[in-house]
User: Fold this.
Amino acid sequence: MRDGDGWVECDCGNRHWGKHGAAGLLLIRDQHLLLQHRAPWVHNGDTWGVPGGARDSHETIIEAAVREAVEETGIDATLVKPLTTFSDLHGNWRYDTVLATAAIGLEPHNLNDESHEVRWVNWQEVTQLDLHPSFAKTWPQIETLVIQLVN
Ligand SMILES: [Zn+2]
Assistant:
């Protein structure tokens, strides 16, 4: 049952999508991250971030992140190995980014209409992209985790 879709008036003053919070999947392979160029019509569209979306009440964070990434990019979930999670806590809302390694053979295909493009980006070149504002804000903390995982 999908019960996560809906807006939340957040303690931080913004409105966020996901009644039970949201989760995204940051896939890592070699020195590269799989980033998603979101379609212009979605909230904060035409920016780069990670595939993700609303979490359902019965899902774990990892389940939600992987499900959303499969829906949006067509990846094979069996090739995903979750390692750690970065939690952006807002009070009555949260966004969890699951950092995971992608095995050889994991490739995006069958993008849904929320994804303009997905691309493997060297982690050192992430800030050269026009990032989703929330991803940009948390990137310095996520980058610290990425550096530990790629080295
Ligand atoms: Zn908030």
The longest helix spans residues 133-150. The mean pLDDT is 94.
